[in-house]
Amino acid sequence: MNYQFDWDLVLHGEYAEWIVDGLIVTLKISAISIVLSMLLGTIIAVFRMTKVKPLVWFSAAFTEFFRNTPLLVQIFFWYFGSSTILPKFVNQWLAHHDFEFAAGTIALTVYTAAFIAEEIRSGIFSIPKTQLEASRAVGLSFTQAYVYVILPQAFRIIIPPLISQSLNLIKNSSLVMTIGVADLTYMARQIESYTFHGFEAFTVATVIYLCISLLVSLIITQYNKHFLRKIVY
Amino acid sequence: MHWEVVWRNLDYFLWGAYPDGPLGGLAVSILLAVLGIFGAFWLGLAAGLMRLSRRLWIKAPAVVYIEVIRGIPILMLIFWFYFLAPILFNETLPEFTSALTAFIIFTGAYVGEIVRAGVQALPRGQMEAARGQGLSHVQAMSYVILPQALRNMIPSFVNQFVSLTKDTSLAYIIGVNELTRTATQVNNRTLNAPTEIFITIAVMYFIVCYVLTSTSRRLEKHLSRYQARDR
User: Fold this and answer.
1) Domain B3-224 is of which CATH architecture?
2) Of the candidates A73, A107, A120, A89, the residue with the CA atom closest to the CA atom of residue B206
3) Cα–Cα distance list, A159 to A38, A47, A172, A217 (Å)
């Protein structure tokens, strides 16, 4: 092994700034996509629970299709292939803004929303039917029963899987480097090609990802300890 | 729309330039996934059982391995093997081998968790009864616990196989000529039909993964009938 380690290279100076810039882009694209995918995922899950057949079919097709195709292919689709499908003014708007970032955000949002919809659905289904029946029997309307009885309980169950989906999204956001979004992985790759010190660059990037993951799993464990044990049927 | 571009390159998407050139396309994706899950099964079985051990020096390496790998994106792991092999061995590994190694190590960590959950899901009485019969711990594991636990794990393995099939698309980044790479090649060559090309390969992945997902759902229903439960 004839390789000279040079940790100073990535821990100080210009290349350290690259890493920080990359981390900021990763966090930014993750944050935006997490918020959007929660919204979209909730809408899809609500569609699935209505009695309207077309909405149910749409939501089923949406979740099955986006869960069963690779994220990378979806990213390429939105980046290379969306222009022929989207209306002209949307294309023009996107071309004048950060199109790579937008395509990456859309892909991450749609992909994660499909998973989130399934988590929400199974969370609501895990509440025993008797809860709904009991609340109807004490005189609540259907909407009231959902708002005051079912959803508050379902949320407690859904939150841990939603947090872990957000973590998956942060990890998946590394794929947007393939279309040129300058995130953490992209920057590590860039340092490798500028300096041939890939070992150091990838170590730093890996450690950052690992810290984010460990932090998130710590939050989930603490949450489970404090809130989930209160749920007893 | 230019669907004729897709039609002309369909054989290239499915098996690359095969009889005349190297295998590629969907065939390579599936090959990567199958070899990957095969390797990951043995690695994951070892990691999962090690994690269940009560001895710290056996348990600790498995915990570190599983938690570290599950904490980083698979893309990182692929780059690690691609850029580190030359440093460690002083020669470059072929792309296929280095991608496959990354997939095995990545999926192994997830399989390890499946194995652990599967063994822990069995009622404690199974182990106690087996030990009570005079079997050693290893015998009880291999003749009583694992045959039951592994059968219950089959649906989770199939789901993991689906994830791996989707993840094989990342081998594109280091230059393995699998389905996603053939698609970008054809896209770069033709330039006039990106939408059609990427929809086509998305559908190809979808067919493979959806068949597997529905199989796993059927198996789950079927197998849950025979599971040993606490009374």
Assistant:
1) Orthogonal Bundle (1.10)
2) A73
3) 11, 20, 20, 13
Angstrom distance (rounded) from CA A171 to CA A165: 10
Other CB atoms within 10 Å distance of the CB of residue A15: 22
Which of A68, A162, A149 lies closest to A121 in space, CA to CA?
A162
User: Amino acid identity of B218?
Assistant: R
Q: Does B209 touch chain A (CB under 8 A)?
A: yes
Residue from the list A3, A185, A192 with its beta carbon closest to the beta carbon of B75: A185
Domain boundary assignment for chain B: 3-224
**Assign residue A13 a region: left if phi > 0, alpha if psi is -120 to 50, beta otherwise?**
left
State whether B80 and A206 contact (CB < 8 Å). yes
In B, minimum Cα distance to A2 occurs at: B87
d(CA B183, CA A205): 29
CA quadruple A136, A141, A142, A145: dihedral sign = negative
Confidence of residue A94 (pLDDT cuts 50, 70, 90): confident
How far apart are the C-alpha atoms of B17 and A176, rounded to whole Å?
29
Chain B neighbors of A185, CB-CB under 8 A: 73, 75-76, 79
- pLDDT at residue B85 greater than cutoff 80: no
- Which chain A residue has its CA at the smallest distance from B168's CA? A70
The CA distance from B87 to the nearest CA of chain A, in Å, is 6
Interface contact B64, partner A, CB < 8 A? no
pLDDT at A233 over 80: no
Interchain pair A77, B180: CB under 8 A: no
Comparing CB atoms, the residue among A81, A177, A206 nearest residue B194 is: A81
Q: Burial level of B219, CB count in 10 A (0-12/13-18/19+)?
A: middle
Residue with tokens 């090309």: B197
Tens digit of each residue's pLDDT (9 = 90 or more) over A62-85: 999 999 999 999 999 999 888 878
Structure letter (DSSP) for residue A229: G
pLDDT, tens digit, 9 for 90 and up, residues B210-231: 999 998 888 888 887 766 665 5
Chain A residues with beta carbon closer than 8 angstroms to that of B205: 68-70, 73
pTM: 0.90
* Closest chain B C-alpha to A133 CA, distance in angstroms: 27
Domain ranges of chain A: 7-230
B-chain residues near A77 (CB < 8 A): 195, 198-199, 202
CATH class of A7-230: mainly alpha
